[in-house]
Amino acid sequence: MSDFSRAFRRFALALPLLFVAAPPVLGQDMLATAPPALPVNVSAPTALQTGDETPWIYEGSDVPRDPEWQFGEMKNGLRYAVRQNGVPPDQVSIRVRIDAGSLYEQDSERGFAHLLEHMLFRESKYLGPGEAIPTWQRLGATFGSDTNAETSPTHTVFKLDLPNIDAAKLEESFKLLSGMVREPALSAANLAADVPIVMAEKRERGGAAARSSDATRETLFAGQRLAVRSPIGTEETLRAATPAKVRAFHKRWYRPENTVISVAGDADPILLAALVEKYFGDWRVSGRPAEAPNFGDPVAPEGTDAANPVGETAVVVEPDLPRSLSYAVMRPWRPVQDTVAYNQALLRDSLAQALINRRLESRARAGGSYLYAQVQQDDVSRSTDATFVSLAPLSEDWETALSDVRAVIADALENPPTQDEIDREIAEFEQVFVSSVDESAVLPGSRLADDIVQAVDIREAVAAPDTVLQVFRGMKDTITPEQLLEHTQALFSGAVVRSVYVTPSADEATVDELRQALAAPVAADGSARLAAQDVSFADLPPIGTPSDIVQQAPIGVLDIERIDFANGVKAIVWPNQGEPGRVSVKVRFGGGYRSIGAEDGTYASLGEMALIGSGVGELGQEELDRISTGRKMGFEFGISEGAFTFFAQTNARDLGDQLYLLAAKLDQPGWDPNPLIRSQAAARLAYESFATSPAGVLNRDLDALLRGGDPRYATPDLADLADVTPEGFREVWEPLLKQGPVEVLMFGDFDKAEGIAALQRTFGALDPREPLPEGVASRVPAPPPAGETTVLHHRGDANQAAAVVAWPSGGGVMGLRESRQLEILVQVFNNRLLEAMRERSGASYAPAVRSEWPSDIESGGRISAIAQLQPDDVPIFFEEAARIAADLTTTPPDADELARVTEPLRQYVTRVSSGNLFWLFQLEGATVDPRRVAMMRSLLNDYSRTSPEVMMQLAQKYFGGSEAYRIAVLPEGQSLAAATQP
């Protein structure tokens, strides 16, 4: 029961959803339309499982059926699931899952499942060579997001999120997908085109992190297929691939019996079922279906027993990776009867893990020997049921860190938890399940279609959110400390224990020392248990005296209003029912990067990690966790060019207290040093790993380099971090929290009067703000030096490199309309670069071009092209980027090339404009610069309507006026003299 059990196992909610069912707007005449009707050339479906027939996904299960889904099983063995869902409007999400991944490959076929994923997009029955990407773009789907695929050890999934659907477009999409899956053109020419792309992907994923991951997989799954079956494959088998070998793999596994299709979207499910049956119902493959290989069980090596279960261990030395240690208690995986009782047991498992993880986190927060530690049970690729323990030692004394973590776990294995601890975790679980019910109406179809894929992969069923909540509430009062002790003991019982330690130092540990440390007895440590503590919002001091509302009026868009308080705080509010159970709050204050001194860049970087954790008034991290137990509350902090931001997603019940916490951070900031010290340690460990790959070097240096070396955007180095003190942190951030205007945006499902009253007693009660320091507005980053090439070096694999080309653009609100047209030009550039570097030469797996246009400042924008490559291909990348830029200045894109860009952009904007977050992000800052409101009215046209002449004019303005700035990241010891003169 995927929604059910996985929700229990991973009870943290996903990131806020952008696509939600709010009223469509953007100044268009949007008429409500019925879902596409059944076309006359499509017969009614005959394989739907109706009446008392048990749907295939619920066979052997007593989990209540989700009535929103309809299921069918055709005579050829193909199964499907369809449902109507209007989030986002006019979109249908299709998933075609093949029950074959890397674990199904023979030794000579390693990487073939993933290679086939690529080849199905190359050419097929209804799509000529290279036609798939432009065809989907013309249908409005963005390649890489709306059109994608994935290969795992156990499956290959083809994904399509089709916008602006009608019956004809739906039918065409099913037809194209059926041709791809059933009859791909697996020719020598297509193989020759795709192998280099897969090799580029393999190269870009390589390096120290890949070696560490491979060694970990080989150790933890020793003796099983998973140990030696990475989806990316091996260079030897990929280069030895032939059309005959690839066709044999396709014929063996791409069969209707191995296929499940899930479809969710804004269409009649009968139509969706009919289209599945029309284009896949006559699919036949000769021969008997092959049996899935035996994935194997974790088997303890000789010499181990219940008293000493420690088996395979490994010490992986990677000089540029931070220390990390993991061990796993391994058990055989077996299919389960996905019943309510089974899921109730999973819930108890999840509670047991949550209790331990809270204790481990408490120990780390207090300044323990490790940066983080976590326990997680997982069923991995139908190969093992394992309990994983992972930790990051803070120093070379890994033995103390391991011992400290094991001691906390030992206490959980010996002594039952307190009732207070249990009640706290139950409250957290219940809040998540209640929120899932509240927000079930706004789950996007893509998520729902993916849920079916996941359920099939783990051989479980699906359940509606209200079923999850009902079952949970029906059992929560039966949970006892003794039960959770039993579940904890079961989680740490298994056939064998395996471990891997990744270290930068070769002489820090041996395999025998690691094995002995895991087998050594450890005394239970109950000091990390959290004592019962009553913390209530009612006991907290008020922010201040609420000020009067001096202005309240519509802004001229929808029913959105602006509210000005006498203390200078301004708010933009939009209560609406578009997203049931969800309220988004964003606070903008101060001057952002503009208000940070060049000498304070290190504290700016650490502020993003530590400022919230440093507390509010007398509330530290633990008290903040405690006071929000069972509540839907958040607290994210960010820095933009022109403002600092808080962000949270909450609900109407908790809105007032959420606003209090956000306002209190400005009014009564806490300065607990422990979060800073922990963030300092995390930054130090991360910095040591940046040089391990080209991507790591760019992650470290790119932001500052593209801003003329501005130290405010630089990643702190080890010397900078060594100079950090809690006193210095407070000295920098305390005045920043007091400066500049405050704007609060509050959009979502709340009562207008109650929401405004909560604003008035929180942000409306703040003391008047101090003005921004003089000269802040002029502190904008400089552009990088035009015409120059910066060469950086990494210590990773000798076949890895990266390159960046950047042109300065602009910034500011008045240029927003031009920035949107510029985005069209950038997408044209991106398509051409993808064709040149990936499709034509296989030099780079995923080159990308992007435009950044800061609206808070009047300059500082840029257009940048980036790619990971082989070192010899860096000059080629520079040449191709320069060639494309120059060509755009003289030869405008034709109508078809523009349509392939503007249609996906139009569909994207239409979809996201149906959500509150879209409006929030577009209107933030409007109380400071009201011109943003007027800019909203042309947004859709700006992104979707243009002309070849406008594109050429923009190209001449931004590519013809100055030379590009270039960055090359090469292996140590290599130079790039040829790349400096492209």
Automatic annotation (TrEMBL):
Matching InterPro entries: Metalloenz_LuxS/M16, Pept_M16_N, Peptidase_M16, Peptidase_M16_C
KW Signal (keyword) present: yes
Span of domain Peptidase M16 N-terminal: 87-200
Keywords recorded for this protein, A-Z: Hydrolase, Metalloprotease, Protease, Signal, Zinc
SUPFAM superfamilies: LuxS/MPP-like metallohydrolase
Signal peptide (residue range): 1-27
Family statement: Belongs to the peptidase M16 family.
Name of the protein: Insulinase family protein
Organism listed in the record: Qipengyuania spongiae
